[in-house]
Write a structure and sequence with these properties.
454 residues; Rossmann fold; ten-stranded mixed beta sheet; globular; single chain; N-(1-d-carboxylethyl)-l-norvaline Dehydrogenase, domain 2; five-stranded mixed beta sheet; Sulfite Oxidase, Chain A, domain 2
């Protein structure tokens, strides 16, 4: 397997892909989102660990046709992106292309098999705790191993030749790689852990230890695992009877961590709840197996995370406010008509779309006593403009739609700040997703000559 394609450079793909790229130079390429691609091309793919920093400069692209045709495709993006990625990579998949999955969930391989030859799919499980700091920068904290295996087991009863070759690729890169003789069971064991601690850390808004250290939570943990194991057995993958105790034992050494679902929630990204607890609920209904605790967790996570991830047009107002507020495009269109601008070209020639004066936005939340500055943050975290409260109210306009439709990200969406009439202090921020109210000035990436004084 001479050429490897890693899809995604997040907390999983970034870590494993960077180590593969370092040790198999010229053989590893990345398929990336545009923002991540720009960052990697500028600064490289950076992995920061306790034992040092690794920076690699791999071949990478947004268009798969710009990359070498791979022998092995390592899928490391989120489970909810799978179908879109399978469509994206279709032009370079051949009858010999091998897929290795490193995603959460137990149905990934079957979803791939609905489109490509099942015999070309290798199941995988990633064991790692890492976070996306910003596009192209990953902080690695704990673990960093994988388990892989044939979906149907090796024909000879041992590891297949291609499994051995793939395992060697990881081992040569310094990544522990276990060969599983039953990858389905291995994935379901990881599923038990994911269905417990991913949603619980969101519900309690705390680390894993907060769930482990309360005796009242132990019964809940056992019930979650019991339901997952019942569904697993119904799907012909029996798990050990002491599965819940095993999950608790495994977790003691990583009790200080948050989970990927918690990190996604806090970063305003979608969660994988549908691929985890939601999948258990769905299959449980099909099998006639009751899953009330997993059903409750699924509903709770969707209700909690919807506050911050209400589709792609979420705008959050927080900071020095009595209560943070989340609005979407529909909500903005319903704000008072006196603040609406049906054609922003009338106030800023050359601009198109419908907007709302920031005055109308700031009238909605109750501002803290002493609030006097407003910071407009871009979604990627790279850009921000800070205005005094008076400047924001007098000059600020947020463009939120064009002809009744959301503004695409590549055109400055979901929201774009303009400040017609502000002169040399003009503030223009694309991709606005957060408005931070402050007592005193805050982040401002504009040049000094364009920055208002405090």
């Amino acid at each position: 397997m001479q050429q490897i394609l890693v899809v995604g450079a997040g907390s999983v793909g970034g870590f494993f892909g960077a180590h593969l790229a370092q040790h198999h130079q010229g053989r590893v390429a990345f398929l990336l989102r545009k923002r991540t691609l720009e960052a990697v091309r500028r600064h490289g793919l950076i992995i920061r660990s306790a034992n040092g920093t690794l920076t690699v400069h791999p071949q990478a692209a947004y268009n798969v046709l710009e990359l070498p045709k791979p022998d092995l495709i390592v899928l490391a993006m989120k489970a909810y992106d799978l179908e879109a990625v399978l469509e994206q990579i279709a032009p370079i998949v051949t009858p010999e292309t091998i897929f290795l999955t490193l995603q959460n969930g137990v149905d990934i391989e079957e979803r791939i098999a609905a489109r490509y030859d099942r015999r070309n799919i290798i199941g995988g499980v990633a064991y790692i705790y890492s976070k996306i700091v910003e596009p192209g920068v990953i902080d690695h904290y704990k673990r960093g191993a994988v388990a892989i295996g044939e979906l149907s087991g090796a024909a000879s009863g041992g590891a297949s030749e291609r499994i051995v070759r793939i395992a060697d690729l990881f081992k040569q890169a310094g990544i522990p790689c276990q060969v599983s003789d039953n990858i389905h069971r291995t994935k379901w064991e990881k599923m038990c852990w994911n269905c417990v601690f991913n949603p619980l850390t969101v519900v309690i808004d705390d680390r894993v230890s907060a769930a482990l250290d309360h005796p009242e939570m132990l019964y809940t943990i056992h019930q979650i695992v019991k339901e997952v194991a019942a569904v697993s057995e119904g799907l012909q993958v029996p798990l050990p009877p002491d599965m819940a105790d095993r999950v608790l034992k495994w977790t003691q050494e990583i009790r200080d961590i948050h989970t990927s679902m918690y990190d996604d929630w806090k970063a305003g990204r979608p969660t994988e709840i549908d691929a985890l607890n939601g999948y258990i609920v769905q299959r449980g209904r099909e099998l006639g197996i009751a899953t009330p605790v997993n059903e409750a967790l699924t509903g709770l996570i969707k209700a909690i995370t919807a506050k911050d991830t209400n589709n792609s047009d979420t705008l959050r107002i927080d900071g020095a406010v009595v209560q943070p507020l989340v609005l979407n495009r529909t909500a903005l269109a319903k704000l008072p008509v006196e603040h609406q601008i049906t054609d922003v070209g009338s106030v800023q020639p050359g601009m198109k779309g419908q907007g709302i004066r920031v005055q109308g936005l700031l009238d909605v939340p109750a501002l803290a006593i002493g609030a006097d500055h407003v910071i407009f943050h871009s979604r990627d975290g790279q850009y921000a403009a800070g205005l005094t409260l008076d400047q924001a109210k007098q000059y600020g306009v947020l463009i939120y739609q064009r002809e009744g439709q959301s503004i695409p990200e590549d055109q400055g969406g979901p929201y774009r700040l303009i400040t017609p009439g502000l002169g040399d202090l003009c503030a223009n921020v694309k991709g606005v997703c957060r408005i931070e109210i402050r007592c005193g000035p805050g982040k401002d990436t504009r040049t000094a000559t364009c920055t208002p004084s405090s």
